[in-house]
Here is the input.
Amino acid sequence: GVDVEIAEMEEKAAEWKASCEMYDGYRELMEELGGVKILSSRSIPPSSATDGENPEKRRKFDEEAEEGFVLTLLLLEKHILEITLSKTPNDEDDGGLRVSDARLTTPTAFPVPGPSTDGKASNDENNNNNNNNEMTTSLVETMHSVSLSNLSFSKIMSQKPSAEVTIPPLDDLVSWSRSLERPSSSASSSSSSSPHGIRFVIAETMARLRTSHARVVELAALRVRYAAQVYDVDSSAVVHEQEVVCAIEEGITVALRLGADCPMVPGSVYVSEMF
Here is the structure.
């Protein structure tokens, strides 16, 4: 009797201590990263009772068990990220929570603006716009001519043009986070719920958001100055790469391959074709 109660209390205390350490880790994570605000947190109840199951028994079970929770975060003051932490079949014994899903609920496609067409521009601005339009027309004609005479450029420019930068689903981050959360064989069960997985997902999501915003700025400048045309290499890929065709001047055209980290990381863009 008494020994059993003591053992149960010690087990509960260990669980509370583990939960405390986990939430302290989350708090430190938010302070470390910055630009992150917790909007809400809601628990995920166990699956609903099946037909014929005792409702009272199910109610008692629901009170004692939770499948996990959903954390809603505001990133960089305008992007909302939902992270689901839940138990997996392998966690039944240790009660650990791991990242099972992550998704941006705000738009993940950021349009690339082209040359300004504001009708309220001054006379000098209108003259500049006219000159830019003439130059742009000339550069577009150069690219068209190259696409007709060069097979490599023709293949690139036959793809569907893209006018936006898109962040693919975050499934790859969820998969990688699980390797960070997996406890070592010598670790105690109380360490199975660690903040490392969620730390990784949030940090990488913020990096992708910053990279996407920076790329939009760079592509907008290329479209204005070099009449750049943007193409998605493979919009369904986990790693979002794009190809940009620019006419540097009349008679010279280059194709740039933009890696997933472009333009934030040196070497993430290279010249794939030149004619």
